[in-house]
Amino acid sequence: MTDFKRDGSHLASYPPVEKWDDWVEYDPEAWPRRVQKHYQLVPTICFNCESACGLLAYVDKETGQVTKFEGNPKHPASRGRLCAKGPATITQIHDPDRILYPMKRSGPRGGGKWTRTSWDEVLETFGARIRKAFQENRGEEVMYHVGRPGHDFIMERTLQAWGIDGHNSHTNVCSSSARLGYLLWHYADRPSPDHANARFILLLSAHLESGHYFNPHAQRIIEGKMAGAKLAVMDPRLSNTASMADYWMPSYPGTEAAVLLAMAMVILKENRFDARFVKNWTNWEELEVDGFSARGQSFESLIEALKRHYAKFTPEFAEKESGVKAEIIVQTAREIATAGSRFASHLWRGSASGNLGGWQSARALMLLHVLTGSVGTPGGHNLNAWNKFVPRPYKNPPPQKRWNELLYPQEWPLCTHEMSPLLPHFLKEGRGRIEAYFTRVFNPVWTYPDGFSWIEMLRDEEKVGLHAALTPTWSETAWFADYVLPMGFSSERHDLMSQESYAGKWIGFRQPVLRVLQERAGKKIDYTYQANPGEVWEEDEFWINLSWAIDPDGKMGIRQWFESPYRPGQKLTVDEYYGWMFENSVPGLPEAAAKEGLKPLEYMRKYGAYEVTTDVHRLNEKPVVHADLSGSKVEANGVVTKAGKAVGVMVDGEAVVGYNTPSRKLELFSKTMADWKWPEFALPEYYRSHIHVSAQAASMGKPAEDSESDSDPDFDKRYMPLVEWPKDANGEVYTLLPIFRLPHLIHTRSGNSKFLYEIAHKNPLWVNPEDAKKLGDIRTGDLIKVHTEIGFFVLHAWITEGLAPGVVACSHHMGRWRLNKDDQLERMSSAWVDLKEVGKGQWKMRQTSGVEPYETTDPDTKRVWWSDAGVHQNLTFPVHPDPITGMHCWHQMVRVERASADDRYGDIFVDTNLSFAVYQRWKALTRPAPGPGGLRRPLWIPRVHRPEEAAFYIDTSVEGKKA
Ligand code: SF4
Fold it and tell me: What is the average pLDDT across 49-69?
């Protein structure tokens, strides 16, 4: 059997570190002659997804150019291996169309005219605008909005140094739904499964081929499988992941929680749960349900209450809801029980992100972990915070005093992240404006639903005063910016990263390869753009310099946070920022470096990564440290407090740290949900999504095919007004799955990668043969028209049995477009389109031409052989903010019909007046703050860039009185 080792030594061949300074290979272009080429190999970190795998840049010593990227065997998470997107970085850095210099618009916004400008002018312009906003107490008008962060902590530090609540993210179109399900259990909002040591692995969606932490997790899932673990995949699509599984469970979208709760019932009824774990590590004594209160009752009576409460979740009921066979549900439940503490699972997007109430998939999945005692165990479910390490810099600003209601409005007090998909609607409602807007590696016009509402917002200079797109590539959003600021790819920037990839903790250091080599050669480089292609910069130095531009004399108190820890009053350098952390904040790193006679920064520049620890299991069982115990007291519920703050919990007579929840235990019963107006969801539950078949029927005025016994009595009143088709609506109603990833594409950043686009460039609509027949004998390749609530899109059909009847699917990666023919967007991935606003808020897009070969300095652009750029479906989606998590619920009802003679491939129509109306209908489902004590949000729930506590209170913080 293959021996997998963390140091990569199991790989058959990779350059040993001692040869990285002069690595010799034969020149492939000289073949069959054997001509030697000499390379310097420099480690860095991939930036093409969140996984942060280790790259090795091969720099040709003769030309000084990076010629390829391979895996860094010294990286503990990726272990020398990469997915297709890692090596493809080479095509991105050498893309002849890339942005090389800062650009400023020279005509109307969105007009596509640009002139080159200097970094000094950019800093001066933004510095002055932001300074004025701060001086006029308009801090909330400065907003940073990020797509792919690619770093840890530095932006939190920067924005808090500015004293503003200005961080916006993409998380509410991504993962916030699953996060709530997890954090209600254990505060940590992400899972970190120990796949490699598991006996049974359950994946909800296509995690093995394209999931979160894709390559590091995929390696370990296969490692687990090779060691005998069984794999089950719950996914409506026959994905490549499902094809590798022992069990494929093609659940009807949105019904996953019903299946998971039925599995839990099998384990409960067959008494195969870990009673000791449930008794010791859940807050079962707080449970109140169906008139039963566990307080003062026996543990056995709690189990009986749970069995009564979940009695409805028979395998047969779950089969009826989901389509997954009852016997498969029973069989997998038994396998999970057998795996016990070695049961691992993963859920991130898919069912959680697609559905109204999708967060319950995570809550129900965690119930299986709790019943099997597989929390914190080898081969089980770990907390992300236990497997991720974020070192702290030399000094940090205090939390901001402000609360920005454009980010965390009162309607969604339990949203885990900013309500960013609703920003255009918030501005339309007059909730605020933005003076200075930074979009960073972020393309909402294309990635988000309702892109035309974003265009309407971005082109309005009243609503958005000044917009800079910080981006390594052109994007549809950059087109509507005032400044387009080129930022580096993986080998052109500094960042520090850590992810929960396996049962361990590590840090990875991204570094600008050409700068590192020039500095090794003795050249003095002040700023990374001096070494990068053109004047491509990096964000770290940009934010340091912008902070100095905002507060040049230090009187605003901002500059102090960006001064050197070693040279008082002098501007901080990146070497100093990271060097200090490596010396002082990473346990064991200084010693490891000293062993090699290196400084910690030199060590990280040499190896690119460092494993901090592998002692990561059962951290909840660690004893409370002695210093915290002295002067502490034990509350009635067993929580150990000191000076009013919880420091641990009593378990088996011992004070242990527990979890960061109010009960310090895993919260089977969420008092938070009850206190915050959702008492019906205090326990893990299943409720029907907005795309449930009964909602589909109702949307077309047909009776739901439901029997009395399994209908959801609250369903009608909660959701029925959500979809309003036009009176003359025709076509069949389906559920559209629009968010599955392709393993070799990056949301919008692969558009300039010829390797990746040559592999895939189409996104047809998956249609089951039964449905194809119903739709008039549609064949693969036929044009088909998909109506959403706010418009339509036209694309080709792909007839496949890899999807259940009643469901259609389309990958979200394709459909890039550009408004001019020859410049400023990746021509190998985008269609040239004609975009017209034909009425107020009514937008029509038609493709003028698809992808064509074109002339550049790269001869390959003349060899582009594909013409399809796909269809941009997201433009036609309205926002669907889940009333609890705020997550955009991507799955949606659509009407599908054969395209008419007037329709052309790629046609799109949208009415943003309708999208605003859909937003209003979803907003009406919320149960707004205040919660207990006048709070905007529970104090214990994490918040990105957390303000000071006073800002959590509605009546005092809006005007900043208490603050
Ligand atoms: S999984 Fe692929 S894209 Fe993501 S960091 Fe690793 S190599 Fe890069």
Answer: 96
- Cβ atoms of residues 453 and 219 within 8 Å: no
Residue 956, classified by CB atoms within 10 Å of its CB into exposed (0-12), middle (13-18) or buried (19+), is middle
- Distance, in Å, from the CA atom of 799 to the CA atom of 797, rounded to the nearest integer, reads 6
pLDDT in tens, 739-790: 998 888 888 888 889 999 999 899 999 999 999 999 999 999 999 999 999 9
Helix axes 256-269 and 359-372, enclosed angle (nearest 10): 20
d(CA 225, CA 196): 8
What's the whole-number average pLDDT of the chain?
A: 93
Ligand 1-lining residues (CB < 6 angstroms): 46, 48-49, 51-53, 78, 82-83, 85-86, 214-215
User: Which of 218, 171, 215 minimizes the C-alpha distance to 190?
Assistant: 171
**CA pair distance 843, 95, nearest whole angstrom:** 32
Triad 504, 505, 510: Cα angle to 5°: 135
Map tokens 């200079």 to a residue.
461
Q: Report the alpha-carbon distance of residue 881 to residue 421 in Å, rounded.
A: 8
User: How many other CB atoms are found less than 10 A from the CB of residue 381?
Assistant: 27
Nearest of 545, 634, 536, 570 to residue 130 by alpha carbon: 545
Give the least confident one: 626-630, 834-838, 852-856, 918-922: 626-630
The answer to whether 826 and 816 are in contact (CB under 8 A) is: yes
Is a pLDDT exceeding 80 seen at residue 75?
yes
Pairing type for strands 807-809 and 816-818 reads unpaired
Question: Atom 6 of ligand 1 has which residue's CA nearest to it?
Answer: 53
Residue (of 530, 558, 532) closest to 545 by Cα position: 558
Q: Are 873 and 810 in contact (CB under 8 A)?
A: yes
pLDDT digits (tens, 9 = 90+) for 673-699: 999 999 999 999 999 999 998 888 778
Report which residue type is found at 271. N
DSSP 734: E
CA distances from 506 to 289, 502, 938 (A): 42, 10, 31
Q: Which atom of ligand 1 is nearest to the CA of 49?
A: 4
Pair 622, 657: CB distance under 8 Å? yes
In percent, the amount of the chain with pLDDT more than 90 equals 87
**Per residue in 708-749, pLDDT tens?**
444 555 655 566 668 888 888 877 899 999 999 888 888 888
3-state secondary structure of 425: helix
Residue nearest to atom 8 of ligand 1 (CA): 86
593 Cβ partners below 8 Å, 6+ apart?
A: 582, 599, 600, 602, 603
- Calculate mean pLDDT across residues 354-366: 96
What separation in Å is there between the alpha carbon of 654 and the centre of ligand 1? 43
32: cis peptide before it, omega within 30°?
Answer: yes
Q: Are 333 and 228 in contact (CB under 8 A)?
A: no
End-to-end CA distance of the chain: 62
Question: What confidence score (pLDDT) does residue 705 get?
Answer: 63
What's the DSSP call for residue 690?
Answer: T
Angle between helices 154-161 and 539-550 (to 10 degrees): 10
> Which residue among 44, 47, 53 is best mutated to probe the pocket of ligand 1, counting the most ligand atoms within 8 A of its Cβ?
53
Centre of ligand 1 to C-alpha 602, Å, is 25
Q: Which of 47, 85, 148, 348 to probe ligand 1 with, by most ligand atoms within 8 A of CB?
A: 85
Q: What is the mean pLDDT of residues 129-146?
A: 97
DSSP state of 81: -
For residue 45, which atom of ligand 1 is closest to its CA? 5
Among 184, 186, 192, residue whose Cα is nearest residue 213 = 192
Dihedral of CA atoms 739, 783, 831, 902 in degrees, nearest 10, equals -130
**What is the enclosing helix (H) or strand (E) of 395?**
none
Tell me, in angstroms, the distance from the centre of ligand 1 to residue 746's CA: 9
